[in-house]
Amino acid sequence: MRAIITILAVITLASVPLWLRDPYLLNALITTGIFVIGAMSLNLLLGFTGQLSLGHIAFFGIGAYVSALTSLGFDIGLPGDVRLVHAPWPPIIGFVLAILIAGLCGYFVGLLSFRVRGAYFVIVTISFAEVVRLVALNWVELTQGPLALTNIPSIALPLPGFGELTLRTKMQNYYLVLVVALIAYLLIARLVHSHFGRAMRGLMENETLAVSVGIDVTRTLTIAAVISAAIAGAAGSLYAHYIRIIDPEVFAFINTVTMVIMVISGGKGSLAGPVIGGLIFGLLPVALRPVMAPEAQWIAYGGVLIAILFVLPRGIVPSLAQRLTRQRSGTTALAPVALPETGAKEPA
Amino acid sequence: MSEFLQHLVNMLVLGGTYALLGIGLTLIFGIMNVVNFTHGVLYTFGAYIMFIVVQQLGLNFFLALPVAVLAGWLLGAAIELTLLRPLRGSDIDTTMLVMIGAWIAMQSGTLWIWGGVAKSVATPFPEAPLVLGPVSVSWLRLFVLAAAAMLILVTYLLINKTSLGRAMRATFQDHDTASLMGVNVDMIYTSTFAIGSSLAAAAGALLGPVYVIFPQMGDLAAVKAFAIVILGGLGNITGAVIGGFILALAEELGAGYVSSGYRDAMGFLIIIAVLIFRPTGLFARAERVG
C-alpha cells in the first residue's frame, strides 16, 4: 500500500512539466522543490533526533556560495601578501564541493553545539547562521557582499561521448531538482530505518536511557548533523545554479523559519511530512499572491504556524495517518507513508 | 587614549539600554522557561509608540516613555493570555515555535501599518553635545542612560522588595511548591511576561530616537538580548545588567578596532563562546532570581 502510494506520487510529480505549461508555476515548483530538500534535511535533525536547529539555512547558504564561487572563480588576498586565485571550474564540481564543505561545516558546528541542549542549542545554532551571514556580507572581496554574486552558470551534466548537457530550461531544472530530492528522500529513508536510525530515535525519546544502553549520543548526533548539513548544501547548490544570483540575504533567518514551518506542518519525524508541508507552504504564496499584499502574506504565515501548533501539533501527515489507522483498527496496523514509530513519542 | 575613553562613554550609554532588554528577557526565560522571540518586536513596538506620541500626536517627548512602557505591558499581557496560557505544560520547542509565529506576524504587521521607510523622532535636547575634556556625549544619550538606570532600579526594587517580586522569585525556584503556598502561578506568569515586555518596549522607546525606527530594528535587539541573558545566566538580573555592559563594550571595541561591519557579530560570537566554554553564564547563580 505504502509502496503504491509512493510510486504514484513520484509518477505524478514526474509528469508535471508535461501538462503544466505555465512558467511562473513551474518556477514556483522548482524553488519549492529546492526548499523541500532543505526541509527534508532539517527533518533528519528535528524529527529524528529531536534537536531544533534554527541555523539550518547556514548550510544551505554555504552550499550556495561554495558552488557559486567554485564555478565563478575568485581572487582574494590572504594575510602575508599571498593571493589565492581560483579559476572557474564546472558547476557540477561545485555541486559536489558544496555537499562536502557543507557537511564539513555541519561536523564542526555539531561538535560545538551538541554540548548544549534545548533552548541553548537553538540559540547557538541561530548565532552560527548569523555569524556566517555577517561574514558573507562583509567579506566583500570573496562574496561581493551586498552586491551579490551574479551570472552563476547553470549546471551542466557531463555525458560521456556526447559532450555535456547544460540545464537551462525550467523543465530540465525541474527534473534535476526532482532527482536530487528523490535521492535525498531515499537516503534519509534508508538511514532512518537502519540501526543508526533506531539509535537516533532512541536518544530523542530518552537520552539518558539511550546512553545507558550504549548509544554514543555525541557521535550519533554529529553524524546526523553532517548528513543533514550535506543535503542542505546540495539544495543550496541547486538554488545558486538555478536562480543564478545569490546575496547574503540567502542566510536570512526567515528562510530557516520557512523550512521549520514546512517540517512542523507536514509532521516532524515522518518521511513524507516535509514533502507535504513543503508543497503546501511553498505554493501557498503563489495562491495568496493575487489576494494579499506581501506583508499580509507574512502575517498569514505567522498565523498559520501558530494555528498548526495549536490544532495539529504533530503535523498533517502523522495526524492523517493516525486517523486512517483508527478507522481500520485491527486490520492493517500500518498507515500509509508515516512511520509507525512516530506515535510513540507522546506519553500515554 | 581619548578614542578609548570615547568608546567607554558610548559603552555606558549603549549598555544601559542593553541591560533593560536583557532584564526583560532573563525574567521571562528564567521564570517561565519560554524562549521569547517576540522580545525584539516589543522593542520595535516601543519605538513606534514613541514615534506615534511625539511625531503623529505631537505630544511631549517625556510623556512618550511612560506610554510606551504601558503599551508594552498591555501587549505583553495579551500575548501571554492568548498564546502562552493555552500551551502551559507543552514542551519548550512548541512555545518557542509559537513565539516565532507571533514574531513574524507582528513584525509583518508593523511593516504593513507603517511601511518600510525608516522614521526618526524629534527630541527636545540641544544639538550640541556635552563636551567633557577629550570625550563628548549628546544630551539625548545622557537622558537615555539616566532613564535606563532608573527603570533598572525600579525593576530591581520590584523583584526584591515587593510581594509580587517575592512570588515571582518563589515561582522561579519551584512553581509547584509556590502554587501550593497560595501563589497564583498563572497570574505570576502573565505579570512576568508583561513586565519583561514593557522593559523591551522601554528600551525601544529610548533607543528609537537615538537611531532610526524601522520594522526590522528589533531582530538584532532580540539577538543582543539573548546574548546578554546567556552571558549573565538564566534569571539573573544583576548578571543581565553586567552582561549588557559587557556586550556594549565588546561591540564598541569590535567596531572601533576591528571593523564596523562586525559590530553586530559580537553578540553572536559571545553567545557561541559562552555556551561552549561556560554554559551556565559568567556569573553562575542560576538557582534564584535577583
UniProtKB/TrEMBL annotation, chain A:
The keyword Endoplasmic reticulum does not apply. The chain crosses the membrane at residues 24-46, 53-72, 92-112, 119-140, 174-192, 213-239, 271-292, 298-317. Keywords: Cell membrane, Membrane, Transmembrane, Transmembrane helix. CDD domains: TM_PBP1_LivM_like (cd06581). Its main location: membrane. It is found in: Cell membrane. This is Amino acid/amide ABC transporter membrane protein 2 (HAAT family). It comes from Bradyrhizobium huanghuaihaiense.
TrEMBL record, chain B:
One of its GO terms (cellular component) is plasma membrane. GO terms for biological process: amino acid transport. Keywords: Amino-acid transport, Cell membrane, Membrane, Transmembrane, Transmembrane helix, Transport. It is a multi-pass membrane protein. The chain crosses the membrane at residues 12-31, 61-84, 96-118, 139-159, 188-214, 226-250, 265-284. GO terms for molecular function: transmembrane transporter activity. It is found in: Cell membrane. Belongs to the binding-protein-dependent transport system permease family. LivHM subfamily. PANTHER family: ABC TRANSPORTER PERMEASE PROTEIN, BRANCHED-CHAIN AMINO ACID TRANSPORT SYSTEM PERMEASE PROTEIN LIVH. This is Amino acid/amide ABC transporter membrane protein 1 (HAAT family). It comes from Bradyrhizobium huanghuaihaiense. The lineage of its organism: Bacteria, Pseudomonadati, Pseudomonadota, Alphaproteobacteria, Hyphomicrobiales.
